[in-house]
Amino acid sequence: MTTETKIADTTVKYGERLIQEGTLITFPNPRVGRQYKIHITLPEFTCKCPFSGYPDFATIEVTYVPDERVVELKALKLYINSYRDRYISHEESVNQILDDFVAACDPLELTVKGDFTPRGNVHTVIEVSHRKNEQS
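^ thats the sequence. predicted structure below, dont judge the formating
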């Protein structure tokens, strides 16, 4: 009887590299001066509980009114995927997403909502907002 030992491939895949480098990229708003809302749903958010290490899953909803800059969607996807191996609470993850989004594009208004999948019979929804020239 032969025993085969499989050695894990430790090469970083291109998708993993892009996720690790995930930063929010922006481009000029094509309609500066017109107030319009952009609503984005990211249904596959995942991170790890900082206490247990168990995975947490959520749908992240981002709604914003752009000013001078708009966030590029592929960059947003990669940025959101960068949370998958982070040990971070529900509250901190949603607040960090808001902070990073504001830093990247300085929108007129922004709301980030994290609707976390129930775990242990507990359902958590975190919502945080920002309005330009006001405190969050």
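The longest strand covers residues 38-48.
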